[in-house]
Amino acid sequence: MYFYKLVVQFKNKTLKQFSLLFVFMIFSSCQYFDKQVPSEKELLQKELKAINWKEVDEYPSVADCQKIENKTQRQQCFFEYMTQLIQQKLSVDTLSILYPELDTIQVKVTIFPNATMKFEPQFTKDSVAYDTIKIDSILKARLVDFPKINPAIKRGIPVKTQFILPVIIKAE
């Protein structure tokens, strides 16, 4: 019987200590439930601020430049390819005859997410010596039938990109 009394006393003492520990844990764990979960709009705004909208993950590309691994070299390859292709298409035209003083033209290239392209000549403010409408129509007539261009990619989504290429009209 003495043994039974010892076991019961030990059990009661341990149970009291355990229950005290249990109550302490319950009150201290309530802190974790007080934290506010950020709203969906707050998370979206935070993510939108973190995104650099001035840069793309992958620049536009053509099949010849796709195999290049380095991002800047692939971009450079694409710009050189586009410049050479535009120069080839314009070399057979009358731009150099009509405007002999015009040796280089700045062409604004827009590549849309559906891989279509738009070309716009960029003229300086003092370009009254040129018939800008005529040059624009020549560019639009000549700059057609380009090979497939892969649009720029931002976070896995094709996006619109614009850039200006200097195109040499007459090479002497």
Give the secondary structure arrangement, pairings included.
Blueprint: H1 2-29, H2 31-34, H3 40-50, H4 63-66, H5 71-91, H6 95-98, E1 104-111, E2 117-122, H7 132-142, E3 152-154, E4 157-159, E5 161-168
Antiparallel strand pairs: 1-2, 1-5, 3-4
Structure description:
This protein has about 170 residues and is an alpha+beta fold. Helices cover about 50% and strands about 15% of the residues. It contains seven helices and five strands. The strands form two sheets. It has a three-stranded antiparallel β-sheet. Strands 3-4 form a two-stranded antiparallel ribbon. The model has no long low-confidence stretch (mean pLDDT about 75).
Overall radius of gyration? 34 Å
Oligomer: single chain
User: What class, by secondary structure content?
Assistant: alpha+beta
Give the helix tally. Answer: 7
Low-confidence segments, ≥5 residues, pLDDT <50? none
In order across it, which strands form the biggest sheet?
2-1-5
SSE string: HHHHHHEEHEEE
Q: Distance between termini?
A: 117 Å
Tally of DSSP β-strands: 5
Shape: elongated
The level of helicity is 40-55%
* pLDDT averaged over residues: 77
Major β-sheet, in short? 3 strands, antiparallel
Residues in β-strands, percent: 15-25%
